[in-house]
Amino acid sequence: MKKPALRLGTRGGSRIPRIGVLVETATTWGRNVFVGIQKYVDRHAPWLIYIDPRGGEEPLSLPHGWRGDGVIARIVHPSLARELLDARIPTVNVSGIRLPENPFPCVTSDLTASGRMAADYFIERGFRSFAYFSLFGLHYVAAHQEAFAARLGVAGFGCAVYAVRPRQGAQPEWNLDLAEIGAWLASLPRPVAVLTWNASSSRDVLFACQVADLPVPEEVAILSGSDDDLLCTLAHIPISGIQVSAEQIGYRAAQWLDGLMRKRKPRPHTLLIPPAGIIARRSSDTLAIDDPALAKAIRFVRTHAERPITVTDVAAQAGLSRRALERRFETALGRTPAAEIRRLRMEQAKRLLETTDLPVPDVAEQSGFGSPEYLAAVFRRAFGLTPLKYRRAVRNR
Questions:
Q1: CATH number at 292-390
Q2: What is the C-alpha separation between 303 and 343, in angstroms, rounded?
Q3: Who contacts 180 (Cβ-Cβ below 8 Å, separation ≥6)?
Q4: Residues 326-380 pLDDT 10s
Q5: What backbone torsions phi and psi does residue 207 show, to the nearest 5 degrees?
Q6: Per the confidence metrics, is the pTM higher than 0.90?
Q7: Hey, where are the domains in the chain?
Q8: Which residues pair with 132 in a beta bridge?
Q9: What number is the average pLDDT over the span 46-62?
Q10: Which residue from 95, 120, 218, 368 has the least number of CB within 10 angstroms?
Q11: CATH number of 10-108+246-274
């Protein structure tokens, strides 16, 4: 007997869930959230995903009368929160903006981890002067700024702050007084390391440096709190950016939504995803170290740590004896060249375990440990876990 044709939106006779995704498509972050959602769908039950292409601050809403089974949304306005509540559709939020009207479970970026990562990045490059270019009235920007300043404070450093009023959302005005911002930067002890909330804010700091004739990165090093393919790479000096784990946010949001649609309640109510790392470009590609030989050695370590280099190799590159190199490392960074090589390899291994599905032998090779056994021994000493158990623990958290 001939099988009846399947109805649209069915599979094997059962209805395929219809999912609305209300996330902007104009940003790298938004597009990567979609990638993460699709990766979950590819590995699990199929969904019919509906997307409405929008810009970063355009209002998002469900089509009138849409009958769906679930929603993943960046909920930044009370009107959208109320609309989704009225619709009574399982919903997962991917925005870190706090709204009283928003009771939905949330998967979003860990701003504290991001601020700390930025502080460590600059401190490791020898900076002793720091600043944050901020935006008035946005609690999430304030949280990022405070995490950056707190980490610097633990290391014994202060943080200058310059704040402007946003035009819309977290976007600075186009008519900022660049001369005034440049004068502020020029008043700071230099070289100075500047962190901003997003790529558009970093762009304005870069423009202000151009107006004030301040060399970037030699006098002012700039790091964006989020990486953006367009704004960061096409600037006249490409801008370094923190790589937000947007794919993982999308994947985990889809996982939670799947559970909600199956009547499972997610715990915890908010899941914070740490950043994947920092994409270093020319805007921060410098070392605030007066010793040229030491700067050369540190640069060599940071660009070759995943290779089988030794302290002797580093000393040869710097034109120093091993003992002289070790003394200079201890004075500038508070650790030996060997400890710096191990630290960088560990950071690379952690990043690969947290953000990729690479097998452990590949992680060991790409992070410079040489063998999975050596990598496992290092992880057991550091965390009391094997690399695989570390990966599972991070993803479960």
A1: 1.10.10.60
A2: 13
A3: none
A4: 999 988 778 899 998 998 899 889 888 887 889 999 999 999 998 999 999 999 9
A5: -65, -40
A6: no
A7: 10-108+246-274, 111-243+278-284, 292-390
A8: 161, 195
A9: 81
A10: 218
A11: 3.40.50.2300
